[in-house]
Write a structure and sequence with these properties.
By secondary structure, this protein is of the alpha+beta class. It folds into two domains: 12-45 and 88-363, LCP protein (Aminopeptidase, 3-Layer(aba) Sandwich), CATH 3.40.630; 375-460, Substrate Binding Domain Of Dnak, Chain:A, Domain 2 (Up-down Bundle), CATH 1.20.1270. The protein is built from 14 helices and 14 strands. The strands form five sheets. Strands 11-6-1-2-3-12 form a six-stranded mixed beta sheet, with helices on both faces. A two-stranded antiparallel ribbon has the order 4-5. It is elongated and about 110 Å long. It starts with 29 loop residues before the first helix and ends with a helix.
Length: 461
């Protein structure tokens, strides 16, 4: 299924290509994409060798070697045998690629899922890395748009409906678990949620657990990298300086959060992936690709076909590193009810999509951080008003129990105590919904008790 960009006018001859500045983005998973891509190339080369030697495809039993021909019987003018030509990976892959898939732009959602041992007991995992990889097959320009995992957005189902109309907002990495994870509709929930945020269609996904990064680096023999910060994790240490890192060291470096923000960690991941991809291209590690693919395929989930992966491998072969544009959804950090979020700048996001896709899209203004902060402040003001009413009802109820508890029937007394406890929790948590639910109930109980006490007093006189 091909995927159209918002506009198809993206000819290379009409746009002078400029090298794009590397911007912070969470793209540690790009190495996995390219590992799969180049794996397609390795498979294609083996396929090419097989069809050049068709007899080998039908050999069931070993045969005796042919009897050598005496030199004297050879014609003196006999030409030497023609050597088998070296296969051209580009030509081989063209024969295996999905050409319809390559006619336009394609958008692929790449998700890194943290399946760490400490999260396994939670029963579900969340996506620690979320990015859109968009490829223009006409120019071989590749752009990565990373979405911070704490982005405060509306969560959608796989059918494009709001997950919860009353409380639609949550961290974007909650979409995966809201859809039931990998075994249910987690990929569809996340794919549609990101598509709604960015305003572009997304039909393909590729997901993997973060340990794939470790396996890929080990399979390629490690990576040389200039470590820029101290890293301490589970008793392991990394110190600044140029060094050769194995898969565990790369994973520790990319996961390090102590002493920095999540956005800083995204930047480290981005720079590491650039080094990995560059080393794969420079060293031409074709011989190592089968082991890389073997290490990765067991932990990858995707709706891309093998022919489509071959199409992506053509991009990897033909793309220059200067054609890789990296971006992140810009915003600002904020807190609400004790939780930290990343608020999106809607106007800047719209400009980013215009820059990458060459088309204007409509970004939901409700997700803009300035509007969200205004709503939070308004809610706080409303909560402050409701807190006054809740506190008055709570104080009155506690007073009735203390002063007239012996005159109140047992069932009414227990009911009032239960609702007073619930109202107390609502005030502590500043939960507007709970305040709205429990304050009127306590007020009504207080009024009923006062009326009953007044009736008792009137009967006595």
């Amino acid at each position: 299924m091909e995927e159209q960009a918002p506009t198809q006018q993206h000819p290379k001859q009409n746009k002078k290509h400029k090298k794009k500045r590397m911007r912070p983005a969470s793209i540690i998973v790009l190495c996995v994409v390219l590992a799969l891509v180049i794996a397609g190339a390795a498979w294609g080369i083996n396929f090419y060798h097989d069809i050049l030697s068709p007899a080998s495809l039908f050999e069931n039993e070993p045969t005796a070697p042919p009897t050598p021909t005496p030199v004297a019987t050879l014609a003196p003018t006999a030409a030497p045998p023609t050597p088998t030509p070296t296969p051209d990976p580009d030509a081989v892959l063209q024969g295996e690629a999905d050409l319809d898939f390559m006619q336009n732009r394609v958008n692929i959602l790449v998700l890194g899922i943290d399946e760490s041992a400490e999260r396994e007991s939670w029963g579900s995992f969340r996506t620690d890395t979320i990015m859109l990889v968009t490829i223009d097959f006409a120019t071989y320009d590749v752009n990565i748009i990373s979405v911070p995992r704490d982005s405060y957005v509306k969560i959608y189902t796989g059918e494009g409906e709001l997950k919860d109309e009353l409380t639609p907002f949550n961290k974007i990495n909650a979409a995966f678990s809201a859809g039931g994870g990998a075994q249910k509709k987690g990929f569809d929930y996340t794919r549609v949620t990101v598509s709604k945020l960015l305003g572009v269609p997304i039909n393909y996904y590729l997901g993997f657990n973060m340990n794939v990064v470790k396996q890929v680096v080990d399979a390629m023999g490690g990576v040389d990298y200039e470590v820029d910060t101290e890293v301490t994790m589970n008793g392991r240490e990394l110190h600044p300086g140029l060094q050769h890192l194995d898969g565990q060291a790369v994973l520790d470096y990319c996961r390090q959060r102590k002493g920095s923000s999540d956005i800083a960690r995204v930047d480290r991941q981005q720079r590491m992936v650039t080094a990995i991809v560059q080393q794969l291209k420079d060293s031409q590690q074709i011989a190592n690709i089968p082991s890389i693919y073997t290490a990765v395929e067991q932990n990858i989930m995707t709706n891309l076909s093998f022919k489509q992966i071959c199409s992506l491998s053509l991009v990897a072969l033909r793309m220059d590193m200067s054609q890789l544009g990296r971006h992140t959804v810009e915003g600002k950090a904020f807190s609400n009810n004790g939780r930290d979020y990343w608020g999106v700048y809607a106007e800047r996001l719209q400009s980013l999509i215009k820059d990458v896709f060459g088309a204007n899209v409509s970004i939901d203004e409700d997700v803009d951080v300035s509007r969200i902060l205004e709503q939070i402040e308004l809610s706080r003001q409303l909560v402050a008003t409701e807190l006054n009413a809740a506190y008055a009802a709570y104080t009155q109820g506690k007073g009735l129990l203390a002063d007239y508890g012996s005159y109140i029937d047992g069932e009414t007394k227990q009911t009032l105590k239960a609702y007073l406890d619930a109202l107390d929790d609502a005030m502590d948590s500043l939960d507007k919904a709970l305040l709205d639910a429990y304050t009127p109930v306590v007020q009504q109980l207080n009024a009923q008790i006062i009326q009953a006490l007044n009736n008792m007093a009137a009967q006595q006189y």
